[in-house]
Amino acid sequence: MENSKYNYGFKTVAVLLQMVFIMVVIVIFSLLSNLFERSMLSFRDLGNSSFFRSSYYMDTVAEEVKDLVIYLQLKENAQKTELQTEKYKKMKLKFDNGESNFYYWFSSRDDVYTNMEGATSQDEALSYAKGLGSYFYYDDSTVTFQGDFLFLDRISNIEILRLFGRQAGGGSLITAVDETLPKEDAIKNAQSAYDTYIPWVKTGVAASIVSLLCFVLSMIYITLATGRNSEDDNIHLHRIDYIPGELLFVAFLAFVMGLFAFCARLGRQSFSISSSLILTGTLVFLSDVFLLTLYMSFVRRIKADIFVSCSLASRSMHILKETVRRQHVLSWAMIRLFICTVLELFFIWEAAFSRRKWALAGSLAVFLYLAFDALKLANARKKILEGVLEIGSGKLGYKFDTREFDGDYKELAEKINGIGEGLFTAVEENVKNERLKTELITNVSHDIKTPLTSIINYIDLIKMEKIENENLENYVGILEKKSQRLKQLAEDLVEVSQITSGNIRLDMQPINMVELIYQTGGEFNEIFEDLGLTIVTRLPKDPVIIMADGNRIWRVIQNLYNNAAKYALKDTRIYVELKKTEGMAEFSIKDISAHEIHQTAQDLSERFVRGDESRGTTEGSGLGLSIARNLTNLMGGTFEIVLDGDLFTVSITFPLINP
Questions:
Q1: Which residues form the domain of 187?
Q2: Does the model's pTM come out above 0.85?
């Protein structure tokens, strides 16, 4: 979206205006500084527009009086050096050639010196002086000063007293200035300069205040607009913005130092006020171009968030960190320990033998650094350990904040975060696969049960018919047996899927395990007799009460008996035992396997692991023990298989109620 307030025209106008405004401020400041330096302006002159009421006028007159005193002293000195003679001639031309607006009348003993025409007596001279406009009168006999010169303290009393120091008294000095200033002299030149520049002071001060405010507003706009344009909201950098900040800062310092040196050199030379203002304006323009370029570059860096990164210090620290990170943590620790040890010994030596106080501070600083570093490493190790424990407890989504670590610990935290992410992804994928597998088993089992029910029903109908063919009757019997087995397998698959998906409800009630085992054993007695298996049952006489779901615990016991019936060696014994142990009820069933067992105990309790390879029969589905184990775990019990050669033992354990 186009943003017209940041277009190129506005920014150009803002830059030019801020240059004009800052030049106005600095030039006016320079003008005021020149006026103060030349004594043309003082704080006592604020609000005054008359030259003859200004301190500049009084300073000019004071200089004239000082020169007059020197002239009169030379005039009375009969023996003058060559240098004094030359100086005397110059001052005589200044005061007595009739081209001065400064008049004097001086009496010493019987001598009278004056440039007032027609003034032969002191009274005439005083009257003449008063008529010129402003005057000054000193009477040495009474040591008094009078006159209408403002700021009489500007006139050196010491100089005048020295003039009358060699006589006994009675002399006087009268000075006056013709305020019409008809002659071209120093006072006339001072008035011209004063009337030229002083009227600009009030206007200049007001203009500088307005310009300063406008400069601030212009800089605010430039700060907001720099780096942006009217086309988008992105920060646009220039080539200068990629130069390290330290180099630009050094260039800034070099420029400022050079500017001060140049100004100091110019200060030793004499310039007129107008020349000084022109030179000041030129320097301000050049300085503003250079400094504004640096300022806008720094602003763009801050906006683009590269102020720190685009610096020699940041790059050096990055290189140093990378170097340290590649080094083994022990090597780096040894290097730091060596450096700190050397520094500590140096500071101790300086403090103990040279009595240097700063060495104590240095020693304390090294100690504090080592203590802080040790605490930092300990804190990092603690956080790493806590994070590993969190991940180990199952919180695979736990993440380290790598900004809290440095060096190898930061890399270790990043690696552990990667491991956690990998484990979390693997677990999620495994859970997803298990869910899909369970859903597939459930759907297939349900789809099988529908046609299987029809097959079983038709087999029942065929059996109701009179079958005279013996072979056909055998075939029907085989079909009935296999269809029932297939039905059981489908039901087992549905049950397994319900257990693994958690879609099963338990009705937990107190169950007497003794009665349950007697009931289940009675159901399997005939089956075991047909297989030549003998059951040896060892049950306590007292009831053994546990908390379980009656139907589910019966299914567990039934599966264990059924497993023994399918895989036990014929004409052997099956040992069934129930006992109480430390508040637990432990049920176990032992048999001798008909064939060698190759799987582990853990494998035999997994789904679809059957006795084809381990127990030598094809009757099993591989789901019986898995269902028994999962149901036992769901009801809060433990399930364990123990293999000892061909001896196969399955035990389940539940907490007793009121043991």
A1: 43-197
A2: no
